[in-house]
Amino acid sequence: MESIYKYGWMIPLFPLLSSIIIGLGLLFFPKATRSFRRIYAIISTLLLSIAMVFSFHFFRQQITGNSTYRYSWSWIPNQNVTSEVGYLIDPLTSIMLVLVTTIGVMVMIHSDSYMSHDQGYVRFFAYLSLPNASMSGLVLSPNPIQIYIFRELVGMCSYLLIGFWFTRPSAANACQKAFITNRVGDFGLLLGTSGFYWIIGSFKFEDLFERFNESLANHEVSLFFATPCAFFFLLGPVAKSAQFPLHVWLPDAMEGPTPISAPIHAATMVAAGIFLVARMLPLLKALPLVMSPISWVGGITASLGATIALAQKDLKRVLAYSTMSQLGYMMLAPGIGSSRAALFHLITHAYPKALSSPGSGSVIHSMEPIVGYCPDKSQNIALMGGLRKYMPITGTTFLSGTLSLCGIPPLACFWSKDEILADSWSYFPILGWIARFTAGLTGSYMFRMYFLTPEGDFRANSSKNFISSYVSLWGNLRFGTSSKKQTDSALPLAQNEIESFKPSENIQEFSDENIKNSVSTQFFREEYPPHPKESDNTMLFPLLVLTIPTLFVGFIGVPFPQEEMGPDSLSHWLDPSLSLSHKINYENWLLEFLTNATISVGIASLGIFIAFIPYGPIPFSLRDLRQKTDLQLEGILGHFSSLLYNWSYSRGYIDGYYNIVFIKGTRVLAKIISFFDQWIIDGIVNGVGISSSFGGEGSRYGEGGRISYYLFGFISGTIILLLVVINYKHDFFP
């Protein structure tokens, strides 16, 4: 098998090669490259598909019991510093390669149709191949230095993709925000890696783990030095995986084209931090002061992302905060010693989120011809509704991804999230409560998004019998009728989420400062279709393919009854020795599983039910009752609900605090430094120069060129000096 593993370096090479080919074509033959743009897209997809075949082959070799393979060669041959480059193929690497390449291929197929009308189509595919190459190289890296290099390439890819539409100011600001935030993490990662090298003297993972534990056991390592190194090292995963407080870049990353949401959110960009923690966990576990903060950062991130997602009206931002929350679960799990659950959730979350991201792209793509191409319109869930009637395949697959992310059995995320909830409760009840509370919020905000998008009635239409009747969850009752007959639409929406349309003079107009001009008046022209249409087959094919792992990938972590029940498939893949040493009593496991599953499913169902009360589709006859009930709830919880909504809609005010402290604070500091430099430093230098100039100018008039004047001055000065010396001696030496 070693002869096959020798070609592992080709996996990142294939997507890199496609990016180089397209880039050179755009540089030297721009017109010809654009004219053959579909050919270049096919080449990119084909080369990444070849890398996917290699990944599946390596994965099959690893799960059948082949040993870990490492290939490396010397990079810096020096007596003081020794560093190698190469690649490492083990079960963790093979699993990550499968995730990266499969999702990457589906995203490329989806992007072919989504970006077909964009002028930057070819440039987009050149950019899209780079993150696949960078992430493949990152997971193959055998040492932290090589991970750091590929991590920088991943950061560059984020910058390019988020700022793809760089002429839009919001996109330009978002890519800069992502770049700068991740530089904070990269600086900490570099400090931590350098510190561990100073302690151990090697960059190899095996040497790091073995020597560090030996040195720690022999008291050769100071915890006062190793612990700060670990915290600096963890700044890298915290920034890359959007953990609090370095999470602010991820929601703004939605300014890029919708297809990049899948590589950023699912298995490539943000998963790099979780992968790095999983790689270094044998070292981090030896530092007890480090593990607890990891779990608390994960718990805070999970709950924070879920609460902020409650009031977001942008479809892509809801998914962004959902990703942030799920990444919090993945960071919480290794902190409580459940690294397998973290990796399990990384796998099960990747495919549902990769399904939801192209699903949102399909929805946005169908909304753009109706409401306009501005993101404030096409991505506003308040203007959607009833899309499943017109887009049945997109709506059904979107429901599958939503159910999985909520943790509903038997879909993928249920199995891993249930395990994290149980382990966190066993480790520390407060963390368990945070995890369970977040699970309930996940069901609430995900189904709020689902009820307002595929379900109900389409709200951006030009029907003559249009009625705008909305019970704001945090505001006032809004209604206006165009005729005596009511339509089937009476949906309650959050305050500041919707602006009523004006297709006729009889409809009352409602202004909203946050969604100003949310529907173009051109929408009501005859040339615009009255309803969205299902996407073409090119966009639907990835949705159907990604639905399969969304339904079944969770079973890799479930032990099935056997005569002598061993571990589940995932545990066996990660550590084949467990199949002989670790046996499970199926009856005890089943009882414990049913107990934990009942709790987790009950919490998720409660969150879904809470979302159904104000947002779910109900028969027309019950809508008056819903309005009365919502008004009563607003009267009881009005002030608290208003505070919660404002806090959630404003992203917890964290971005505002950062804007005041870091952006405005930096500007004030720069002005102070500029003032000091201009008036103090330059003032002293300029003062000396001006004094010299005036002194020289004044002395110029005192020099006439006559020797008698010079002798008179010399004698006068000598006499004055003698008088001063005589007086000095008389005063001090009488």
Describe this structure in words.
This is NAD(P)H-quinone oxidoreductase subunit 5, chloroplastic. Belongs to the complex I subunit 5 family. By secondary structure, the chain is mainly α. Among the domains are: 251 residues, no CATH class; 63 residues. The longest helix has 48 residues. The radius of gyration is 32 Å and the shape is globular. The relative contact order is 0.07. About 9% of the residues have low confidence.
Summarize this structure briefly.
The protein is mainly alpha-helical. Helices cover 69% and strands 4% of the residues. It has helices spanning 2-5, 10-28, 30-35, 37-63, 91-114, 121-140, 144-162, 169-200, 205-217, 223-240, 249-252, 261-267, 271-284, 288-309, 315-335, 339-371, 375-378, 387-390, 392-406, 412-427, 429-452, 537-552, 569-574, 578-581, 586-615, 623-649, 654-701, 707-732; strands at residues 69-77, 82-89, 467-471, 477-481.
Q: Averaging pLDDT over every residue, what do you get?
A: 81
- Percent range of helical residues: 55-70%
Number of strands: 4
Termini separation (Å)? 106 Å
The secondary structure category is mainly alpha
- Beta-strand percent range: under 5%
What are the low-pLDDT stretches, counting only 5+ consecutive residues below 50?
462-529
Largest sheet: 2 strands, antiparallel
Number of helices: 28
Q: Give the radius of gyration.
A: 32 Å
Overall shape: globular
- Going across the biggest sheet, name each strand in turn: 1-2
